[in-house]
Amino acid sequence: MMDRPKDGPLALLLLLLGHMISALEVPLDPKLLEELPQPPTITHQSPKDYIVDPRENIVIHCEAKGKPHPSFSWTRNGMHFDIDKDPKVLMRPGSGTLVMDISGGERSEAYEGIYQCSAHNELGTAVSNSIVIRQSRSPLWSKERISPIIAQKGQSLILHCRPPAGLPPPIIFWMDNNFQRLPQSRRVSQALNGDLYFSNVQPEDSRSDYICYARFPHTQTIQQKQPISVRVLDNKPAEERAPVFMVPSESVSSKMVLRGEVLEMECVADGLPTPAVSWVKRNGEIPSGRASFLNFNKTLRIMDVSEADAGEYRCFAKNRHGSVHHSIRVTVNAAPYWISAPRNLVLAPKEMGIITCRAAGHPKPSIRWLVNGLPIEDAPKDPSRRVEEDTLIFSEVQTGSSAVYQCNASNLYGYLLSNAFVNILAEPPRVLTLPNIIYQVIRNKPALLECVVFGSPVPTITWFKDSRSSMLEGNAYVFHENGALEIHMSQPSNSGKYTCVARNNLGISENHVYLEVKEPTRILRPPEYQVVQRNRDVVFECKAKHDPSLVPTMTWLKDDRELPDDERFRVDSDRLTITDVTESDAGTYTCIMNTTLDQDSASAQLTVVEAPPTPTVIYEQPGVPTDLELTDPGARSVQLTWTPGDEHNSPIKKFLIQYEDALHQSGVWHNLTEVPGTKTTAHLKLSPYVHYSFRVLALNDVGFSHPSMPSRQFRTSPAAPDENPTEVKGHGTEHNNLVITWKPLTPLQANGPGLQYKVMWRQLDMEKDWTSVSVANVSKFVVSGTPTFVPYEVMVQALNDYGPGPKPSAVIGYSGEDFPSAAPGNVRILVLNSTLAEVHWSPVSLESVRGRLQGYKVHYSRERSLHRHNSHQGKQRTEIFSPNKTSGMLPDLLPYSVYSLRVTAFNGRGEGPSSVPQRFETPEGVPGTPSFFKVSAIDLDSLTLEWGPPHERNGRLSGYTFKYQTVNSKNDLGLLEELDLPSNQSSFTLHNLSHSTRYKFYISARTQRGSGPTLTEEAVTILDRAMVSPQVDIATQGWFIGLMSAIALLILILLIICFIKRNKGGKYPVKEKEDAHGDPEIQPMKEDDLTFGEYSDEDHKPLKGSRTPSSGTVKRDGSDDSLVDSGDTQFNEDGSFIGQYSGRSDRDATHDSSEPPSPVNAMNSIV
Predict the structure, then answer these.
(1) pTM reported for the whole predicted model
(2) What is the per-residue pLDDT for 452?
(3) Which member of 69, 448, 507, 593 has the greatest number of CB atoms within 10 A?
(4) Could you tell me which residues are beta bridge partners of residue 240?
């Protein structure tokens, strides 16, 4: 029974209505949602203050859902906006989003104004916020002539920036002529208004290039002020002085800031030596978690300002000549923010309900109601509707009175607008749970049978088992609000067919499910402790039982890991055998019997000992203790004595005392305590309401003895619980609930029958009285209808039939989170180079997080390349940043591309709405490798090469860099020649080359950013033009085929002769060569040898930096054989020889005296 304070009839009415509303949630079933009518709901809209880029089309978002799908209309500056009259304005199909096309030169200023979107269907009208469209402006700096500034050493100085006013305001920074930021310090710093302050000037401050820059973030433009020249005179000593404030100039100032915004205060002091600045708050503390001291302590910044930050702040400036302070009086006002935003309401005809709209702010916001976009006082009267300030009360609603209501909360500093519909539905019950589901559960475990239903009015749910004769009821069952049936301790008698029936005044629906209760898996004979000698075998047995309908799996582990991959380990159905045991096999072995529903496990230790050289004394486990006796009984204690068994040549180290609780867990033995092996008596401390039996085990170096026979039963009396549940937590699973969970007490901790839990909660700092409810046989309780993400104090107390447990301590938990309601604003992108960009955003307000902010996600993707030959899109990528970040880097971008980007905040529930998509372009980068590079034609003194443009151009190609050089027979490179070729050229012919010469070629593409990677190729000019004349293909001539056949026959005959001589034991030429030269595998083949040297196919080794040649290029394979022997000789299509050859390997280089250095030289010798 829930204990609630009495708040009067109105509170009771609102509570009753609140329960009605929460009971009519529409399940997120897609099929159901498609069938139900629904008034419009705005799902996405542009921000209230929308600054547009004058270079891009204007897109004003308005998306909505509803059934039927809504139609859309717009107003501009309070008047109907007819988009058909302006051909440059389009509305996206199926959407209310407007697109103003300004690509034809139209000025975006013409579309500035206040826009509002309406989404209509036959059930009502939803409206968007008023969206103010303003064009981003980055005006030019006014021209001025700045005279040089001359200052005496030690004087203070201010360099004024005075940037042009932009929309949004520019970011100010000071740099020199080399675009390097000017160094700042305690003495020299930039103020919030952009001016540069010198507390005292020094000779090193003299320079002529103090330049103030203004960066306009929306258009990514930077403008600079004329350089300021400063000369510091050092012609007399500087007089030291006490501090005087330069900013602020007066002694007392005031500052107003809005709740949730950033408060910045600054104090800049003149003085010599340079003063140190510090801050304090009178009658309060500066919030350490949200406050930071910037600009060398001259600026105090407080993030996410709250009302508690109001008050008087003082800054102090101090040096050795004195100190001075300034007071800043801070007042905090607040634009409206939600306490309880209106929520959609689904009612059945004749039902009651409420919509509340509660907002706070300073000054207090005024609440104004609208219906379908019209002020409620101007709307048609509805007798079922009543307005009570911030609450709409509906009673006896009728079919056809569905509508969308708007709540507007406004004050001097802003407004909030929220839509909430009232949908009147009359729907018979529907069971959404799939039919004939079979639930399987282990005996004595809880079972949960689902029955998800929907209907309007809310259906009542009843459960039946096997037949419809009697409805299920009693303490054995728990009926949940969502229709589920829970059975705490499932027994075989609970198996069967279950029927859930849903009823309302419009109909009835039912569904059948089945429950099967299975027997638990139990290990009957666990493995036992084993001591085995090295090189012997050992067997562990593990026998288990399981439900016959479940498929078991036996798994063995060693020291909680998989068994070694060793054939000595053999696993059978119920045993593990280890043969030829070694010392590394010692450890703990665990057998695990698994089924699809449960498992059981048992472990045993294996000890490996050395085999004794001679027979020794036999050591065994101790004998079984006997003669167990209970004496000196108390309320919670008893004394146990026993007689130890034989030690078996190994002294008893300790006794282990175990107990069985026949009342709660019969047949299961638990460890209670241990006593030294020299004692035979133990004083046992016991728990109430337990039927104890005791047994004793003895332990020596060999292992445990078998258990003793159980003692007589000793029963303790019941009592109130001694402890409360642990691990008490409070958290939300939905945005409007608080789930309180705890670790339940064991039967031993219950201390008596009738165990229950008293669950208590109250909203932290908001409620004085506790709300409580008593539950049994559960470990959680769900509190519904809570505000979103607010702290609660939670307590859980145990009680039984003999009284409550001790007073519990409270823990703090939070109700459920909701998706963030706002997107990060002021998203700005700074492109740093062609592959890296930096994104900045303004943090979301604390109220809009509606939970615990976990961070920000930046989603970005490549939309297209700026090059017309490469425009494919890229996959979306996401970078995640911590919640205290307001900027981050986007790495690995592709150059010369257009990217789109949006930023979201996320909490434990998920992501909030996206920021307005931003687009940015990356500059050019260096291009990729040309797509191909080959030699297409070869002549005596010329070569023609072809190439293709890079696949990744990364910009506009400005040309190609073409280089080439000769390569001699020793792979030495000659003089490198270089040519610049235009970007539209794809081939080039080199003339006046040396004949019969190898060349190496290099080519790379260029953009304005530089050259890309180089692609290489090699080729050889031919020896004689006659060699490329048309010839008959030699491979098709009869004489060539006959010659090859004769050679093959000759080789076969030689092999047969060699085989015959080897069998006769005689020597033959190959054998002689082996004897003369050692290993025949390293001998080359020579014409005057009668033997065949072994051919070695070494790795191909091209020149360093070159690619594997394509068709028509040189191929280096480490062989200097003659033209006839060369396996890589190639011919033209007409059969003529191409001057290609294979380079020499290191091994062949030792035979220069007997072999021609190249096929070209071989041809010269023939000629």
Answers:
(1) 0.48
(2) 92
(3) 593
(4) none
